Amino acid sequence: MSKDKYLNQMQKLREHASDILNSENFLSSDKNIQHGEISVMEHSIKVALKSLYLNEKYNLKCDERLLSRGALLHDYFLYDWHSPEHAGFKNLHGFKHPKVALKNAREEYDLSPVEEDIIVKHMWPMTVVPPKYREAWVVTFADKCISTAESIHFIQSAKRRKKYININT
Ligand SMILES: [Fe+2]
Ligand SMILES: [Fe+2]
Asked: Residues near 61 by Cβ (< 8 Å), separated by ≥ 6?
């Protein structure tokens, strides 16, 4: 995404969701890591920007306000999923967190059915029932693109760090 496009999508995000962006709980998710070195807050903003970008680029005719807000809240689980009580296969974070995010988001925001669908279905196909609304499909796809890029970036930087350490020892 070019700098101009990024600024344009960021402006839209502020227009539609400044209350979420400035809220205490959303800001607190900056202390929880999502993938690699990326916080949940940063990840959620990147997914929202990517969703807006895809909507504009492919003329998908999504409601931008619902798309922005649902994307920002899609991982609103508000805990550190790497902590002992949430990490590991037995804790099923991957399966459970959409419902936790929905519960948390409902407590603070008056959600539309589209926003609820975005949050609770974004892990599809892991969560078997597919998205119902176009906006939820876009966020589900954007989340996978961003998550993959974040994980690849982390693996590449870890390799670079290892190489650097080898060179300097
Ligand atoms: Fe998620
Ligand atoms: Fe996500």
From this structure: 55, 134
- Provide CATH code, domain 3-167: 1.10.3210.10
Domain ranges of the chain: 3-167
Nearest bound ligand to the CA of residue 124: 1
Per the CB < 8 A criterion, the answer to whether 36 and 26 are in contact is no
pLDDT in tens, 151-166: 888 777 777 777 766 6
Q: How far is the CA of 97 from the centre of ligand 1 (A)?
A: 7
Ligand nearest to the CA of 44: 2
Of residues 51, 52, 44, 107, the one with CA closest to residue 74: 44
Distance (angstroms) between ligand 1 centre and the Cα of 168 equals: 38
Q: What is the pTM of this model?
A: 0.91
